Amino acid sequence: xxxxxxxxxxxxxxxxxxxxxxxxxxxxxxxxxxxxxxxxxxxxxxxxxxxxxxxxxxxxxxxxxxxxxxxxxxxxxxxxxxxxxxxxxxxxxxxxxxxxxxxxxxxxxxxxxxxxxxxxxxxxxxxxxxxxxxxxxxxxxxxxxxxxxxxxxxxxxxxxxxxxxxxxxxxxxxxxxxxxxxxxxxxxxxxxxxxxxxxxxxxxxxxxxxxxxxxxxxxxxxxxxxxxxxxxxxxxxxxxxxxxxxxxxxxxxxxxxxxxxxx
Length: 263
What we know:
16% strand, single chain, 5-stranded parallel beta sheet, alpha/beta, globular
């Protein structure tokens, strides 16, 4: 039997027991943010640098007061950036504010309606950041070829979307996610589109290394309870993938052995 301690998630050479990564936006207050993150069991938390105070404004509440860096691995992200230059600048600001922290989540968006990634701009920003010494986890569309290119470039993880950010639609194209997993030389994490616990389990059953989510937890009626559900779903999905599901069949197959039947 496997468990999280002997089946760790490894990103940029660091081992984590949880395969669930969570965001910190959209909660009603800092207390709810803290409670949901704790219930999720996540060890990596992503923070939108352009929308969250981590020290830029000393007169406002600092999220690091409730989610201290000595307890979590911070993953600054470039949410809200629509060009490569802004994304690179945001990562450099995060590194300055966090005393040289170099693990970042890169996302460069193409438009406000779909929040799909602008992949040419993403590739440009990724190359700049990798050359600047950052460890880049990159949000991308579900394109196996681009995933390979980003890994070859030096990104430490690729993060294909399951569906548009905040949509809650679940995994729309499982085939492409599987293609990315089969060819991946770096960890693959589904990022965006998960809506409920079953979506997270389905994603993990594709063989991915982890799931990052925010809205699915924060927008639930009971975010802390949903965070707990997501924790269990990610664990169950991972175990199911490792176990290997039974083959699908067109017709029924008896559960009991057919040999030695009593006449």
